[in-house]
Amino acid sequence: QVQLVESGGGLVHPGGSLRLSCAASGSIFSPNTMGWYRQTPGKQRELVATASIDGVTIYTDSVKGRFTISRDSAKNTVYLQMNSLKPEDTAVYYCNVRPLGPYRAYWGQGTQVTVSS
Question: What is the mean pLDDT of residues 74-103?
């Protein structure tokens, strides 16, 4: 039914850029928050950035000024523009959609981002 398809991950050098995309298909309640989380081995999944349907955005401190989240709610698609990438940004990045109210959240399969010289 509901499926989140992520793309845009890869290997880049420090200082490089990547743009992640996540397209959600299926029946998802329209008022929702879309965002990105990331996880490295041995660590818990952490919030990177989220965007609500009314335009409110949240960023973790470590990516402020470097990453930009945007969304096309009509297409249920969320993007993450990542600039000035650092080795510490290396992680599996997961797309997330959280509908308003008592509905389950949805997760993508994850896309690997590796920043290395």
Answer: 95
